[in-house]
Task: inverse folding
């Protein structure tokens, strides 16, 4: 089972490490032009051993190799496999033009096997340094293996071969080539936008060897379904565009509802207290009520005290004026 994909020192990535683990499926989500397709398309190097069958958009084989393997000695694609233990299939650029070399290393992937750290910088090791690093750790790396040996390593009916894909007798190798019915279908899946009626027919019927069977895929009804699907996709895009604003609105609405509930509770509490206190206040605020008498008494005291203080201040003021004139 493919456990991990690592791309080191490519044109696009300094290091990309995608852990698949034992997940039945994964989803890559990111903005456009950040490398999702490049990461997925490097699976061609594992599952399609005939480079003439590689699908990398409109790029040629040489452009593709330069894209993934920026240098001969310091660029790698590593596939970590779990099959009765961990091992890695290491892919690097060959010295010959437009070719790749494959190596088998019986260990789980680790960054320190392929990188060296100097201060705050991390730099990929040259291939000889990688080999020496693995040897020091007691890891026996198999010499460069042929594509035929690699085919047996990737596709086999025998578990003892520790293949990436355990096949059945229905998966037949196509002559002496390194293709089979799985790779014929896989190359369509890896570039789904290039599927047409012939390709779809070929992918579905290759295992049954029914090349001449007719299959109408893109009928009028199919076009209608595609149009309906496109309309729904546009609707989803519009909804996604306002998702942030809707989330903010929802948050504000929740806050408003909370404040409204609090205000309603305070209002009910106020009227309840007012209802209980009103008879007492009304009784005490009558002219002959206790509160009214206390208010009048306090007013009289204030008027008396303040009147005396006022008279004293007026007398003091007159005295000050008289004194200032005589001087």
Result:
């Amino acid at each position: 089972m493919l456990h991990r994909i690592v791309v080191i020192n490519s044109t696009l990535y300094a290091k990309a490490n995608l852990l698949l683990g034992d997940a039945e499926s994964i989803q890559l989500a990111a903005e456009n032009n950040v490398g999702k397709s490049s990461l997925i398309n490097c699976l061609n190097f594992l599952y399609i051993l005939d480079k003439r069958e590689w699908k990398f958009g409109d790029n040629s084989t040489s452009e593709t190799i330069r894209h993934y393997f920026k240098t001969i000695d310091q660029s790698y694609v590593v596939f970590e496999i779990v099959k009765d233990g961990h091992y890695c299939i290491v892919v690097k650029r060959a010295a010959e033009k437009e070719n790749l070399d494959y190596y088998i290393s019986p260990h789980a992937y680790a960054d320190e096997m392929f990188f060296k750290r100097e201060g705050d910088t991390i730099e990929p090791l040259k291939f000889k340094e990688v080999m020496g690093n693995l040897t020091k750790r007691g890891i026996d790396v198999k010499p460069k293996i042929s594509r035929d040996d690699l085919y047996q390593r990737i596709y086999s009916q025998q578990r003892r071969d520790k293949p990436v894909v355990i096949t059945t007798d229905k998966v037949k190798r196509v002559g002496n080539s390194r293709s089979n019915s799985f790779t014929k279908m896989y190359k369509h899946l890896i570039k789904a936008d290039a599927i047409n009626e012939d390709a779809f027919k070929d992918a579905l019927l290759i295992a049954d060897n029914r090349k001449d069977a007719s299959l109408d895929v893109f009928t009028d009804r199919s076009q209608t379904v595609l149009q309906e699907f496109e309309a729904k996709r546009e609707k989803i895009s519009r909804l996604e565009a306002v998702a942030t604003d809707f989330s903010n609105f929802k948050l504000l609405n929740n806050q408003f509802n909370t404040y409204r509930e609090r205000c309603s509770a305070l209002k009910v509490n106020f009227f309840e207290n007012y209802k209980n206190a009103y008879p007492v206040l009304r009784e005490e605020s009558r002219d002959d009520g206790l509160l009214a008498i206390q208010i009048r008494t306090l007013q009289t005291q204030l008027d008396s005290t303040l009147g005396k203080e006022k008279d004293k201040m007026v007398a003091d003021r007159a005295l000050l004026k008289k004194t200032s004139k005589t001087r």
Summary: The first strand starts at residue 2 and ends at 8. The radius of gyration is 42 Å. The mean pLDDT is 81.
